[in-house]
Design goal:
By secondary structure, the chain is an all-alpha fold. It has 19 helices and no strands. May be a proton symporter involved in the uptake of osmolytes such as proline and glycine betaine.
Length: 455
């Protein structure tokens, strides 16, 4: 296989060295990457919560609640189909025009779709058009998030000082627990502050409409940034790739495949811990039967540990390397999969332990990914390559994870859900063992990534 990037010709003698591109203050970089992904994940997770608690009753025909929940979770999966498309569209412009402008566009796309959900008519008002409009807005959410993560990861890592790329990369990752905490916190407050009838009538719309405020904040932060130094050099040299996605498949296919598989267990774990567990935990017929507010509190406790262990994982990855840290964590996830059934069957203490342990492991596996995936690709196609790997993993690992887990639990029992997690974790473990260490690769030149043979 050819190398991940072509060697660049040396400049001719007498050619003046290009001026160094303007740098971004580190605090502003970290704030922009954190705020932007927090907004995007907030938007994404309020849909996930509503897909379990609200949409089955409001957007689908009356009848079997389990069937309505599965239909609602099917619309949840639409975003994961859209995300690879978003990674291609936004990645193309991110590698052609620049990281900054593309990040602004992805945030606007996500925000418009989210606010749109907040004003949709329900099935009782417009019939079958309601779920179709819901699916369209969900597609828009996926499109925006497909371009968001890769750009935010590059914003952090391409501005990071030497030896701290793993830690800097955890700031966009922290957007996941922060966004989740905000999303579920808003739903919890609303469910406590109003009656069930008021919540279903109009209260559920509030979290979607509040997104408009967060979007303005995110845009204000991002518009104040310069282009990342690594890509500014590509722009100065006129070295952009005409079609980045073609370049990724032609020269970086091994990196794309392994990067995708490395992320699969992370996605399955997270959506089992959040979307599936919320539905299973509050289902009085086939699940645990907890009150909705009580289980949301349980989830918020677990997400605190997710947030704590995310930067810890970045520090460990900088010190010991990406590969050994992720191999150890993935092995721990396999053990956790076997323990899932016993934990969920042992009362409130077991449920809390399940959420705390699972979401702690989520922080440890998710934290290094914003460094690992970009390190697999050269600067000219890094936005496209890292985004494509991340979002293809979402399509494989997260899109139908809540659906599959709900079906497995209802048909065979909760232990089979743990077996599902074990299976995908073994796939990720094999991919990690086949991937080389990237900690010492430079993002300013042409890292070899996983394709080791030069032309």
């Amino acid at each position: 296989m050819t190398d991940v990037a072509e060697q660049q010709p040396a400049p001719e003698r007498g050619t003046p060295a290009p001026a160094d591109p303007p740098t971004n203050p580190r605090r502003r970089v970290l704030t922009a990457s954190l705020v932007g992904t927090s907004v995007e994940f907030y938007d994404f997770y309020i849909y996930a919560t509503a897909a379990v608690l609200v949409f089955p009753a409001l957007f689908f025909p009356e009848g079997d609640m389990m069937a309505a929940r599965l239909q609602s979770l099917a619309t949840f999966a639409i975003a994961f189909v859209a995300r690879p498309i978003g990674s291609w569209v936004f990645g193309h412009f991110g590698d052609r025009v620049g990281r900054k402008a593309t990040l602004v566009a992805s945030l606007l796309t996500m925000g418009i779709a989210t606010v749109g959900i907040g004003v949709l008519p329900t099935y009782a008002q417009v019939g079958v058009a309601a779920p179709l409009l819901l699916a369209l807005c969900r597609f828009g959410q996926g499109l925006g998030l497909g371009g968001e993560w890769g750009g935010a990861a590059l914003l952090a890592t391409e501005n990071a000082p030497a030896g701290k790329r793993g830690f800097y990369g955890t700031f966009p990752q922290l957007g996941a627990p922060i966004g989740f905490f905000l999303a579920n916190g808003v739903f919890l407050v609303l469910s406590q502050a109003m009656s069930e009838e008021a919540f279903l009538a109009w209260g559920w719309r509030v979290p979607f409409l509040l997104s408009a405020i967060l979007i303005v904040l995110g845009l204000w932060v991002r518009l104040s940034l310069h282009e990342t130094p690594a890509f500014a050099k590509v722009l100065a040299a006129g070295d952009q790739v005409r079609t980045p996605i073609v370049e990724v498949f032609r020269r970086n296919l091994a990196a794309l495949v392994l990067g995708t598989l490395v992320m699969v267990a992370t996605y399955v774990l997270f959506y089992l811990m959040t979307v599936f567990s919320l539905g299973f935990g509050t289902d009085a017929e086939t699940g645990l039967g907890y009150d909705r507010s009580q289980f949301l509190v349980f989830l918020l406790v677990g997400v605190v540990f997710f947030g704590i262990f995310t930067p810890v994982a970045g520090v460990l990855a900088d010190r010991f390397g990406r590969k050994p840290v992720l191999v150890a964590v993935t092995a721990a996830i396999i053990v956790f999969g076997f323990a899932m059934g016993p934990l969920l069957g042992s009362g409130t203490v077991g449920v809390l332990a399940f959420l705390v342990i699972g979401l702690s492991l989520m922080g440890l596996t998710f934290g290094p990914m914003a460094a690992v995936l970009p390190e697999l690709f050269p600067t000219r196609v890094r936005y496209t390559g890292a985004s494509a790997a991340y979002n293809l993993a979402g399509l494989l690992g997260a899109s139908f994870a809540p659906y599959i887990a709900t079906w497995l639990a209802g048909t065979f029992g909760i232990a089979w859900v743990g077996g599902y997690l074990v299976l995908v974790s073994v796939v990720t473990l094999v991919a990690l063992l086949l991937t080389r260490e990237t900690k010492d690769d430079s993002l300013d030149d042409t890292p070899v990534g996983v394709t080791a043979r030069r032309r």
